[in-house]
Amino acid sequence: MTAIATNIPKSATPPLERAYARLGVLLIAPTILVFSLVIVYPLLAAIYLSVFSIYTPTLQGGFVGADNYIELLTGKAFWNSLKVTLIWTVGTLTLQIVAGVGLALLLHQNIWFRSLARSLVLFPYFLSTVVAVLVWKWLFNDLYGALNQGLMQLGIIDMPLDWLGSMPNAMIGVILVGAWKFFPFVVIAVLARLQTIPENLYEAARIDGAGPIARFFDVTLPQLRSVLTVIILLRAIWDFKEFDLLYLLTGGGPVTSTQTLSLLVYQEAFGLNQMGQAAAYSVGMMLVMLVFMVLYIRQTKEKNA
Amino acid sequence: MTTNKRMNAGLPRRTVLTGMAAAGAAALMPRRIQAQEQITLRWWSPQSSPEQLAAYKTQIANFEALHQNVKVVFEKTSDEGYAPQLAAAFASGDVPNIVTHLPSFAVSNYWRNGLLEPFNDVIEMIGPEKFYDGVNRIYEIDKGQYAGTSIGNSAANVIWLRKDLMERAGIDKNPRTWDELLSACAAMQGGGIYGAPLPYGRNSMTTLIFIGVIHQAGGMVFSPDLEVAIDSQETRDALEFYKAMRQYCPPGATNYSWGDSLTAFVSGACATGIYTGRVLINVNNQNPGIADHVTCDTYPTKSADIAPWTFNDFPSVFIPKAAGNMEATKQFAAFLYDPEGYIQQLHAAPGHVLPVLSTIAEMPEYQNNPIIEKYSAEVDKMAAAAANGFNLGWESTAHKPNVKAGEIVNSGVIAEMVQRVVLNDENVDTVLGETAKRIEEIMAG
Predict the structure, then answer these.
(1) Of A137, B123, B400, B439, which sits most exposed with the smallest number of CB within 10 A?
(2) Measuring CA to CA, which residue among A198, A188, A185 is closest to residue A93?
(3) Is B18 part of any domain?
(4) Between residues B352 and B158, the one the model is more confident about
């Protein structure tokens, strides 16, 4: 009887199921439409623009084929900015993870004013980037900055340091500010995971004679592994394409020492009015980011499985 | 029927029906026709200090009082941000009606790409005879066609000096040459005071100031026929001077732009400054203790036989071609030169933006300003320097208009050259060769 049932032609699908299928298509159609408009169209438009030489204000120009990509591959600009982007991403992400995990562990303990501290730690993340940059620029200021004044009063330096105008200080400066601005995201995610680790795992470890450090490496860290992987991938994607913080702090300088790919695209599109070349750089940037995205998708799939 | 009673008592039924029909017709009337009755004009400018905003408010109120169906909305932009904002506006077609205070070299680029409305009508409305000689020449990109006009003159790279510090250091005259300036900075630096706030950042200020330094060495960025001429001995001399000045600038000057440089002098942290006449109002408002000791001069040159070169960005007024309500827009553009509002705008930062109409400059209402009266010698000096000023869009009277100047400035290629040689100590010949090549590519692009 089963064989007969599986051989039923498609046209014989019950009307109710066909109606449900149609309803399904109808319900998902708005989502597909919105995704097409806000993701697929800009993506295809960027690829289309990248094979033209286009003057930004008029969006007029001529077809140049692969010229923009040849410039991308053979010129120094893209590779230099890619190197800068990787240094910035790795540097700020490492600090975010170290500071985020450290503070999350602290806030997981029974300390005084824990609730207040948990609220305050989110402050940098909620602060507008423009405001945060203004505050930091004032702190870094050579003539009136609190940072230089403090270091001089402590006798650590004799003369004010040039924090944002020379290398490697500029890169260190933006990495520090980036870490300060975004580490609360790590704190929130890690703290949430810490609260779900079963206490009996720690009890078992204590019985086995594990000290605090051993408990961290043998219990806490393995339990945090999955959440940390997702955090690292997400933050890597976000840091990789970070624009406003770097643009406002250094403008990409000195020379091009802090000019990440996002700043290069902006400079090409609006400084030089070369929208086609900018689009080619964007496509190159997207391909690099695709690596992070594939890793992220794999990770979430594994987690769901 | 209460309604009928009222109708009978007041209006005849035919009148009421006619009125209802008229109201219905009005409701169905195309929106475009209704829009003609109430007009909104959008005005963009990167100049927006509180005093300037107050002046704009007066100008807008006066214009709206004359044209009751017109509303003018002011929107801020910035010196570093106008290029992307305007690019987006032009690309989308959602453009402002009028844009003021952008440098002339930005205007010429938009004009050459067919994005601007010819300004001849507005100049006629203002009265061409009222302008100082040569003010409009820089906007005549194509013969007989004006891309815009100047709303003011500016002398952006005059040197500001502290007379009290000069006296204390035994300096009896303003430095005229680079050697004199270096000696003066060395003598005045100390006790928490630096010699000069020259910009070394990767921004437009460094570019524009350094173009001036190349000219002060006797060189130029382009030949009169717009061949790239930056790879010269004069540029090498300019870079050497700029490098020598680094020791007299605050550590953070490597990231300085206009605001930082201005503040460094006004606050008293630097013995000399480089800026427009905005210094005067800022010193009087923010640091009155030094207000009686400041003066200005044209920036020193390599040697006394090289004439000073003043950077004048010829702050502009122009109208995007795609702007709506063109007639009202042109009327408003001309109205910006109406004496009451224009003088208030000039007084917002006396000496910062100087009048381009001789009729205004001669008016007692303009002259009777405490800052202009107190610093009349300085204002006269800046006015004379600005009148003979140039910029990258027009490097000398012999030069052709350079419509790519805006893109060269925005590319940061000249600021990068300064940083590579002065901060990174890279080989001058290599850097100059690469810079010249990049400028050639921009010109060709």
Answers:
(1) B400
(2) A185
(3) no
(4) B158
State pTM to two decimals. 0.81
pLDDT of A42 above 80: yes
The angle subtended at Cα B271 by Cα B269 and Cα B272, nearest 5°, is: 115
Q: Provide the residue type at A218 as one letter.
A: D
- The answer as to whether B28 is a domain residue is no
What are the structure tokens assigned to A234, written together? 């997400």
| Residue of B113, B202, B251 with shortest CB distance to A252 | B202
For chain A, which residues make up each domain, given as ranges?
13-63, 69-304
B376 vs chain A: nearest CA distance in angstroms?
Answer: 32
Q: Which residue of B has its CA nearest to A168?
A: B424
Q: Are residues B412 and B281 in the same domain?
A: yes
Q: What ranges in B336-369 are assigned the alpha helix state H?
A: 339-348, 358-361, 364-367
Q: Does residue B225 sit within a domain?
A: yes
pLDDT at B401: 87
Count of domains in chain B? 2
pLDDT range class, residue B134, cuts 50, 70, 90: confident
> Residue B84 and residue A266: Cβ atoms within 8 Å?
yes
B392 confidence band (pLDDT: 50, 70, 90): very high
User: Which of 1.10.3720.10, 1.50.10.140, 1.20.140.10, 3.30.160.20 is the CATH number of A69-304?
Assistant: 1.10.3720.10
Q: Which amino acid is at A211?
A: G
**Residue B264 maps to which CATH number?**
3.40.190.10
**B129 and B252 fall within a common domain:** no
pLDDT bin (cut points 50, 70, 90) of residue A270 is: confident
Residues of A in contact with B87 (CB under 8 A): 56-57, 269-270, 273
Q: In which residue are the tokens 């600005």 written?
A: B386
Measured between beta carbons, the chain B residues lying within 8 angstroms of A251 are 201-203
Question: Chain A within 8 Å of B424 (Cβ-Cβ)?
Answer: yes
- Give all strands (DSSP E) within B30-176, no chain letters: 39-45, 70-76, 98-100, 149-150, 158-162
pLDDT tens digits for A158-181?
778 888 888 899 999 999 999 999
Nearest by CB: B250 against A53, A59, A143: A143
**Interchain CB contact of A271 with B (< 8 Å):** yes
